[in-house]
Amino acid sequence: MSKQVAFEGILPALITPLTADAGAVDYAALTTIVEDLIAAGVHGLVPCGSTGEFVTLSHDERRAVVETVTGAAADRVPVVVHTGALSTAETVEFSIHAEAAGAAAVMVVPPFYEQLSERELLAHFAAVADAVSVPLMYYNLPGATGVELTFEQFQELQRVARVETLKDTSGNAVAGMELIQRDDEGPTLLNGMDSLTFSSFAAGARAAIWGAANFLPREAVELHRLLAVENDLVGARELWKRIYPICAFLESHSYTVAVKEACDLVGLPTGTLRRPLLPLEPAERAELAGLLEKAGVGPVGAGR
């Protein structure tokens, strides 16, 4: 699968809706969310990532989430499944399952307890590449993994382990710009940092994996259309001015918590959070509600 065909536009990093007591995943609600996002025009889906609270999901739950999302998507948009885990064996297991369930690609974050050497990292990704035939996406999250790679090291991942694309959540705009400008020489960058979405699209990035797209999918799709398709800088600036304060809020709080609270505020079925995550304080939730209202972000479903 080519980079251009597989990853173009907005791919929401899906939340994982839970029951009210957080004891189980609400798979019916997850199906509803997938349907609403596809109806809103998103270009792909990314389950079991950081925004999806994968670290608190059991192995069985992760597999069931993947099956629910790929089943609901029904090949209408590509599903990129995050399969990262603390061991190579687990990552391979999740990746084999994701491919069998219909994933278009697997996204892999480096194991995030022991900081890997470059040799260990290459071996880890090569093991995944040997186990599956779908493309690999590198989840660049140095804040959690401690792993920071040079452009040349990304090229080596591409050569050794078929890492065609890279979700960049480093916040390093300079390094991201190098990947965008040298696309033909290395993995293609998908922006993964909310506050850099505008600048990355303006610079030539073709896609973004975006947690906020769970609750503002139409705005996210419109921003991509304006910047990446129509080159309408004026219109994009006007839209970005509306939604940037929301992005800034998300990044200044626990991101997963804030995204899920925003989803709840616009009427999505979210359930609750699993400990150790806790809801926003009432004043913070009220601030977020005010930002959503000011930006004109309302219900995601068919009634919007």
Features:
TIM Barrel, disordered N terminus, alpha/beta, two-stranded parallel sheet, 304 residues, 10% strand, 5-stranded parallel beta sheet
Query: At the third CATH level, what is the topology name?
Result: TIM Barrel
Shape: globular
User: Biggest sheet, strands in spatial order?
Assistant: 2-3-4-5-6
Fraction in beta strands? 5-15%
* Number of E-state strands: 7
Structure class: alpha/beta
Tally of separate helices? 13
Quickly count the domains. 1
Indicate the CATH class.
Alpha Beta
Largest β-sheet summary: 5 strands, parallel
Tell me about this structure.
This protein has helices spanning 3-6, 27-39, 59-73, 88-101, 118-131, 142-145, 151-161, 173-181, 197-203, 217-229, 233-251, 255-265, 282-295, and strands at residues 9-12, 80-82, 105-108, 136-140, 163-168, 188-191, 207-210. It is of the alpha/beta class. The protein has a single domain (3-295), classed as Aldolase class I (TIM Barrel), CATH 3.20.20. The strands form two sheets. A five-stranded parallel sheet has the order 2-3-4-5-6. Strands 1-7 form a two-stranded parallel ribbon. Strand 3 (105-108), helix 5 and strand 4 (136-140) form a beta-alpha-beta unit. Helix 11 packs antiparallel against helix 13 (282-295). The chain is globular and about 50 Å long. The relative contact order is 0.14. Mean pLDDT is 93; it is low at 1-5.
